[in-house]
Write a structure and sequence with these properties.
With about 210 residues, the protein is α/β, with parallel strands linked by helices. The chain has a single domain, classed as Vaccinia Virus protein VP39 (Rossmann fold). Helix content is about 40%, strand content about 20%. It contains 7 helices and 9 strands, in the order H-E-E-H-E-H-E-H-E-E-H-H-E-H-E-E. The strands form 2 sheets. The chain has a 7-stranded mixed sheet with strand order 5-4-3-6-7-9-8. A two-stranded antiparallel sheet has the order 1-2. Strand 3, helix 3 and strand 4 form a beta-alpha-beta unit. Helix 2 packs parallel to helix 3. The longest helix has 25 residues.
Length: about 210
């Protein structure tokens, strides 16, 4: 049984790798690679110790969360990717939803430049990338689908939630969290879990008003 499960995991990983490869080749995107957090270049020096290494999220992880968020029936105005890296989640989201605007928020300027080059090849006019610290980034008014691929520590996530508390209260925004290591921070901030896959550690969270 253990060997069978191991084989199934390897087959799934191979399928995901092929899907990612085809997606990136189709749109001529440069999203691959791994960069240790200490090697990330940024002017936001206070945020660097709280950052995670750069690694692109898989199409499978994004797809699972978007499939689940579609079940909520919420009409979203914006897709916001915190820690957007080279922009992969933004481009995948653009294929799935008619968002009015898609914004990637990334604290490393070199990664932002790569994401902008990718955007030029992708060809969507509603995708924007900004060089900013997520802790102080303000969400636009309206319903936002906020995506995270565990880009930073709990302290940054907490500051982001605090600075955008009113935005969440005044909207039907949802946080889609891949590799949700700090999901308890969301619960303490008043969010309820709409969905969670324990195996993939992907979850959806929405702020619940009193």
């Amino acid at each position: 049984m253990h060997k069978l499960q191991s084989l199934e995991r390897k087959v799934a990983e191979a399928i995901h790798w092929i899907e990612d490869f085809v997606f990136e080749r189709r749109y001529q995107l440069n999203c691959s690679g791994y960069i240790e957090n200490r090697k990330l270049e940024t002017i936001h020096s206070a945020a660097l110790p709280h950052s995670m290494a750069y690694q692109a999220v898989t199409c499978a992880a994004i797809r699972e969360l978007i499939d689940e968020v579609e079940k909520t029936g919420i009409v979203f105005d914006h897709f916001i990717d915190l820690g957007s890296g080279k922009g992969k989640a933004c481009f995948y989201a653009a294929m799935r939803f008619p968002f009015r605007k898609i914004i990637g928020v990334e604290f490393s300027e070199p990664l932002v430049e790569i994401a902008r080059d990718n955007a030029a090849r992708f060809g969507a006019e509603n995708i924007f990338f900004v060089n900013a610290d997520a802790a102080s980034f303000c969400l636009p008014p309206g319903n936002n689908l906020v995506f995270l691929f565990n880009p930073f520590s709990e302290s940054i996530l907490k500051k982001f939630l605090e600075s955008n508390a009113d935005r969440f209260r005044q909207s039907r925004s949802v946080i889609a969290y891949a590799n949700d290591q700090h999901r308890l921070c969301l619960a303490r901030a008043g969010f309820v879990t709409l969905f969670r896959n324990q195996d993939t550690q992907g979850s959806l969270h929405q702020y619940i008003t009193g």
